Each structure stands twice: as structure tokens, then as C-alpha cells.
Amino acid sequence: MKTIIPHLLAIGFSAATLGAYDLDQLSRSEVWQVRYCVNNRYPVRLCEAKPIMERLLDDPNARVAQQALVHYSRMIVDIDKDIVGNALARVSLDPPDKAEVDPEVSSTTKYWLDELGRRENDPAKAAPISMLGLLGDASVLPALTALPPSGNPYYLANLALAYRRLGSTPQYLATLEKILALPVKDNLYYQTIAIDYLLQTHPDRAKPAWEKINLAIDKFPIQANWVYGHVLQRQLP
Known about the structure:
Blueprint: H1 4-13, H2 20-26, H3 32-38, H4 46-57, H5 62-75, H6 81-88, H7 103-106, H8 109-118, H9 122-135, H10 141-145, H11 153-165, H12 169-180, H13 184-201, H14 203-217, H15 229-233
Helix pairs in contact: 1-3, 3-5, 4-5, 8-9, 9-11, 11-12, 12-13, 13-14
């Protein structure tokens, strides 16, 4: 434990100063708890963080790989499908509640379509939607487009990513526009997430969206954690 604590403290208290090299070195630690914590600290540009997360997706410790999958699936729009496919053979975003569920069953499109139907509120539906996007079976697109309208930005962000990963870029963009059309004061965090996604895929659309939000936030005080951090690290076109 004495050897673990200094590493964990270094990650926890010095995250703001950690660069890509530091995170790369920590992600290679022999201590799995250190590799697990690296998943929570990406104060670097996505192009530098992406290979670190992809290596951790293949980590021999399932808890590290599962944590990497959670962050990779939320931060990276255009994922490496082979790497994610290998990870999904071992872990998922939302592990089944019942231990008797066969992992081979719980990593199938049918399982997550059934889960989507069982879950009652929009935030709870977000994980099945995200898993369907990661599994990459485009035959589920009609089921996603048939979902009732929602104004929940967390749900919409996951739905946008699923559309993109299933090959429906128009629906991806339309869903991001729904997030950006919500009242800024109550949805700023997810609106800046939407802008970050646009920076990754359609950078020409990111600047107008940011300028609209920037005008709105001049009218009320905001806290730093209301804005998705990676937007602040990327240069708008």
C-alpha cells in the first residue's frame, strides 16, 4: 500500500499539470489501481489521450479495461471498432445486474435492445443506447429512431454518438443540434460536450455553435465545471 498511495496522490493532486508523457508512463504502471485512476485524468488533447485509452482497453485487469471503456466511449466519437470489439468481449459500460447472465449473451445486440425496452426513464436508457452504438449493428437504427422525443441532454449525447457509430451522420448532427437548442443556463455542460464532438467530426460547425453559447453565458455567472474541459483545450477553427 505504501508504494501505491504516492502514485495515486500524484494523479489526484497533480492532474492539472500532468501531460501526455506522464499519463503514458502511469498507464504502464505495474499497479492496477494506478492504471485505473489514469482513466479519470486526461488534461491533454484527445489526439494524445486516445492511444493511452486504447491501450488501457486491452488491460489484463477487467476493472481497468471497464473504466477505460466508459471514458473512451464518451470522449472519442469515431472509435476504433476492433479495439472496442475486443474490450466488449470482456467488459461493458453497464454490467448486468444478475450474475447468472452469460457474458456472451450480455454482449449481444438483442440483449441491449431488450434492456432498452425494459428501462423506463431517459437517463437509464443511455447505457443501452451507447452499448448498441459500440456493438455497431446498424440494424438497430429503426429502433433508435422510433424512440420518443427527449430533452434530456445526457440521453441525447449518448444517442448522438450511437447514430454516428452506426453510420447515420445526419441523425448524429440533428441530435447534437437538439442539445444545442436547449436553454444554455441549464445545459451548458452537455452543450460544450456537443461542441467537442463537432470539433472531432465537423469542426466548421463548432465555432458558430460556440459563439452562440458564448453570447448567452455572458448574461449569467458560470462555474468552471459547467464547461466540458476538452473544449477549453482545443482550438476552434
